[in-house]
Structure formats: C-alpha cells, structure tokens
C-alpha cells in the first residue's frame, strides 16, 4: 500500500492530535536522558500560537496527523547572535519543534518532513534552510548530516546552547 503523505498548514482543530505527538516526543527525549523539551516547552499554547501565525505545519498519512513542525521565513532573532558563522546571510527558512508520531518512528519521516520544508523554501524563492538542535539530540544531528546540512556554530534558546545548521538549496530548474 502506497502512503499518501501530505504536508499542510495546521489548523486549530489539529491541536489535540499535535499535542499527543509532542507529549510523546517530550517523554521520549526525557527517557533518552535529554534536557531538550524538559522545561515546559513546547506546550499547547505554543502550538496554538504557531497555528494562529500560520507557521504550524503537519505531516499527514491519509489525513492522519503523523508529524508536526513550525516553519518560519527570516524569523529567528537568536540566529543573528550565532557563535560561529552561517554559510549565507540571505533570506532563510527556519524550522523548529520537529516531532513524529510514536507509531511512525523509524520510517524516515523526519527526513521526509524536512524535504517538504525545503520544497516550501524553494516555493517561496528562499534558498537557505537553517535549524538547530540540542547537543544531545544525536538522531537529529545524524539527519542533518545525512541531508547535507552544515554545522555552523551555536545559538542560544532559553539559556541553553544549541547546535546550529544550515543547508543551501540548489536551484531546481
């Protein structure tokens, strides 16, 4: 059976499903011994705010929500204060809060979702994608490496250093 993945803007009615996915991801990070997402963030208010600002996106499989992320264009003030150097100083897309449903782990869906984010960037004529992750999120760091993201330095969120990455997208003809 062929999966019908779609990537679309999240709606307010999606919050309960998104929150279940995020709660399980928060718990997974805790069980892995991570400090990421262990400080009350993200939470349902953050998701609602994402959706109201039209930056919340879901990955779906035949209408079922299986992943969540926030995608912004040129909107990450902390990135201006990188300790290191970005590859470009051009417009950029940034994504945060990547979470995949417990039932769909290990299927490469974070990579698929990041592919959709890169497509979204190109559709908006933006050729740089930036992201960051916790120093102990080895799974995400491995995904960044596999997808050609370059480690650029450190950025700080809520007092914690995070590894910052950038990928310059090829112009698809």
Entry summary:
With about 170 residues, the protein is α+β, with helices and mostly antiparallel strands. The protein has a single domain (about 5-170), classed as Gcn5-related N-acetyltransferase (GNAT) (Aminopeptidase), CATH 3.40.630.
Structure explained in plain terms:
- It is a single chain.
- The chain is an alpha+beta fold and 173 residues long.
- It has one domain: 3-Layer(aba) Sandwich (Aminopeptidase).
- 29% of the residues lie in helices and 32% in strands.
- It is built from 4 helices and 8 strands, in the order βααββββαβαββ.
- Strands 1-2-3-5-6-8-7-4 form an 8-stranded mixed sheet.
- The longest helix is centred in the first third of the chain and has 17 residues, at 15-31.
- The radius of gyration is 15 Å and the shape is globular.
- The protein starts with a strand and ends in a 5-residue tail after the last strand.
- The mean pLDDT is 94.
CATH superfamily: Gcn5-related N-acetyltransferase (GNAT)
Q: What value does the Rg take, in angstroms?
A: 15 Å
Helix and strand string, N-terminal first? EHHEEEEHEHEE
CATH topology tier name: Aminopeptidase
DSSP helical segment count:
4
Let me know the largest β-sheet: 8 strands, mixed
Helix proportion: 25-40%
CATH architecture descriptor? 3-Layer(aba) Sandwich
CATH class: Alpha Beta
**Uncertain residue segments:** none
Number of strands: 8
- Residue share in β-strands: 25-35%
Average pLDDT, all residues: 94
Q: What best-fitting shape do the alpha-carbon axes yield?
A: globular
Structural class by sheet pairing and helices = alpha+beta
Number of domains: 1
Give the termini separation: 31 Å
The strand order across the widest sheet is 1-2-3-5-6-8-7-4
């Amino acid at each position: 059976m062929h999966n019908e993945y779609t990537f679309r803007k999240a709606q307010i009615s999606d919050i309960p499903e998104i929150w279940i996915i995020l709660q399980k991801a928060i718990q997974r990070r805790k069980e892995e011994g991570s400090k990421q997402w262990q400080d009350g963030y993200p939470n349902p208010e953050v998701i609602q705010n994402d959706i109201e600002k039209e930056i919340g996106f879901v990955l779906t499989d035949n209408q079922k929500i299986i992943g969540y992320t926030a995608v912004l264009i040129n909107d990450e003030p902390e990135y201006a204060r990188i300790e290191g150097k970005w590859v470009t100083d051009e417009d950029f897309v940034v994504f945060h809060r990547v979470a995949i449903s417990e039932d769909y782990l290990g299927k490469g869906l974070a990579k698929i979702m990041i592919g959709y984010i890169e497509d979204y960037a190109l559709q908006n004529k933006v050729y740089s994608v930036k992201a960051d992750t916790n120093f102990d999120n080895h799974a995400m760091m491995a995904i960044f490496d596999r997808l050609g993201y370059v480690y650029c330095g450190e950025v700080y969120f809520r007092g914690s250093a995070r590894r910052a990455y950038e990928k310059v997208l090829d112009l698809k003809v």
